[in-house]
Amino acid sequence: MSNYILDATRENFADAVLSNSHKGPVMVNYWAENAGPCLRLWPVLEKLANDYQGQFLLVNVNTGREKQLAQEYGVNSVPTVKLFVNGEVVEQVHGYDSPDSFKKILSKYLARESDRELAAAVELYQQGDKEQAFEQLNRLIIIDPENDRIHLAYAKLLIREQAFDQAYELLEKTPLKTENEEAVVLMTNAAFLSAAQKITSLEELQLQLEQTPGDPELMFRMASHHMMQSDFASALDLLLKIIRLDITWHNGVASLCTRGIFIMLGKDNPITTEYRQKLIDQQT
User: Fold this and answer.
1) Which of 72, 132, 158, 232 has the smallest count of CB within 10 Å of its CB?
2) Angle CA 69–75–79, to nearest 5
3) What CATH code is assigned to 113-193?
């Protein structure tokens, strides 16, 4: 054992994992003594913990002894690894995975040299020096393109500046489009806000749709209008029509926005449940 590796029980889990996760990432390894994949994964995690020298904490939970603790966090098989940040599970891995995969996960949450410059750029923006802030953000994306926090912060500032298309395109060029829920929501908002800007009048848009009901551009604009009114069901109805007509339209923006609405509403929302099933039925 090292200073960066702990064992957790139900009695000390709150301190070892939840409290410590407010100081930095905590990786919890749920394992069992007689499970071969657990024994194979252990040296990978141990080496990572020692190589990173305290940048994250590795906490082991023996599920054979701590069955209730495993059940509380939905662990049904071992090994299962969950990464906690600020008291919440932000990532999880089921089964054995490679060191590079864990490094990629950790890189999203560990502080990087560019984070300090990112904070300085945001401060410049807040002080009103927007030109200098955006210049610094452009430079940081080139210097550290793997720091997702730069792309997300940049997109948020662009949306505040009503540069919706630019914000969307910035995130579309990164893997965040498929990997990061925050990015999907940002892109969804940017796409709808951009489309809403193009509506000259609702009456004219309705007339155009009556004349050309199969036009995905017009349907997307109407969906954006419904989103501005928080009418999620009507927006989703139109998005599903676009997906049925041409799932590749504008690089799949309708599919992305459908997913974005589901994320905004939450997986247990009745609208999410209803339209996720409609989407499945439509694709089968």
Assistant:
1) 72
2) 110
3) 1.25.40.10
Structure tokens at 137: 């953000």
Superfamily holding 198-283: Tetratricopeptide repeat domain (1.25.40.10)
Please tell me what DSSP assigns to residue 269. S
Helix (H, G, I), strand (E, B) or coil at 261: helix
First to last CA, the chain: 51
Q: Where do runs of H (alpha helix) occur along the chain?
A: 13, 36-51, 67-72, 99-107, 113-126, 130-143, 148-160, 164-172, 176-179, 181-197, 202-211, 216-228, 232-245, 253-265, 270-283
pLDDT digits (tens, 9 = 90+) for 185-238: 999 999 999 999 999 999 999 999 999 999 999 999 999 999 999 999 999 999
Structural fold of domain 5-107: Glutaredoxin (3.40.30)
